From TrEMBL:
<protein>
    <submittedName>
        <fullName>Transcriptional regulator, Crp/Fnr family</fullName>
    </submittedName>
</protein>
<dbReference type="InterPro" id="IPR018490">
    <property type="entry name" value="cNMP-bd_dom_sf"/>
</dbReference>
<dbReference type="InterPro" id="IPR014710">
    <property type="entry name" value="RmlC-like_jellyroll"/>
</dbReference>
<dbReference type="Pfam" id="PF00027">
    <property type="entry name" value="cNMP_binding"/>
</dbReference>
<feature type="domain" description="Cyclic nucleotide-binding">
    <location>
        <begin position="11"/>
        <end position="123"/>
    </location>
</feature>
<dbReference type="InterPro" id="IPR000595">
    <property type="entry name" value="cNMP-bd_dom"/>
</dbReference>
C-alpha cells in the first residue's frame, strides 16, 4: 500500500531503511467513498493526503453557495488546504472525493514529529509547497490573461484523461466557465 507514496517521496529525497520504517509507522490509510468531505471549510486541516487511487478536489464555496474548484488531486497527487494545515487555523477551502478514493495521510502532529526525526521529509514538503505555489501563480495568470480554450487545453495537459472520470460541471468550475460553454469548446476542438 505504501509503495506509491514512497516512490513519490523518491522524486525529491532519498530515504534510508530506518527513515522509511519511521514514516511507515505513522502513515495512515483511508478508503473514502465518493462525495465524502475530507475537509470542511471552517474546520482546521489536521491531515495532508496523498491519493493512491481515485480523485479529490479542493474547492471554495462562495457566499451564494456556488462551488469553485481550485485543484484536482488524482492518483499520485497530494491534497491539503496548506494554509489551514501549516498554521492550524480554520480552512478556507474544502476537500471532497469525486470518486471512491484511497488515500495515505499524515496528521499534523505526526508531520511535526517527523520533521524532527526525518529532516529530509521537511525538504520534500518544502519542494512540494514551492511547486504548488508555482502552479497556483501560473493558474492565476492563466485565468486573468488566457482564453477559455487555452485554459481548457492547459487543463487537459495538466490532468490527462481526468475529463473522462469527472463531471463536466467540475471541469467548468475549475476553468471559470459554464458547463454549456465547456460543451461548446469541446465541440469546436
Amino acid at each position: 500500500m505504501f509503495d506509491a507514496i514512497f516512490k513519490n517521496f523518491a522524486l525529491h529525497i532519498n530515504l534510508d531503511e530506518s527513515e522509511v520504517e519511521r514514516i511507515s509507522a505513522v502513515l495512515q490509510v483511508r478508503d473514502v467513498p465518493k462525495h465524502t468531505l475530507l475537509l470542511q471549510a471552517g474546520t482546521t486541516a489536521r491531515n495532508v493526503y496523498y491519493v493512491v487511487s481515485g480523485c479529490l478536489r479542493l474547492f471554495y464555496s462562495d457566499e451564494n453557495g456556488d462551488e469553485h474548484n481550485i485543484s484536482f488531486s488524482p492518483e499520485n497527487w497530494w491534497a491539503v488546504d496548506i494554509t489551514s494545515f501549516s498554521m492550524q487555523k480554520p480552512a478556507f477551502m474544502s476537500i471532497d472525493a469525486l470518486e471512491d478514493t484511497t488515500v495515505c495521510y499524515l496528521t499534523y502532529d505526526a508531520m511535526e514529529q517527523l520533521y524532527q526525526e526525518v529532516p529530509k521529509l521537511e525538504r520534500f514538503f518544502r519542494i512540494l509547497t514551492q511547486n504548488g505555489l508555482y502552479v497556483y501563480q501560473r493558474r492565476t495568470i492563466s485565468n486573468l490573461s488566457e482564453t477559455a480554450e487555452s485554459r481548457y487545453k492547459r487543463f487537459r495537459k495538466r490532468y490527462p484523461n481526468l475529463e473522462l472520470r469527472i463531471t463536466q460541471k467540475h471541469i467548468a468550475s475549475y476553468l471559470g466557465i459554464t458547463p454549456v460553454f465547456l460543451s461548446m469548446l469541446r465541440k469546436r476542438m
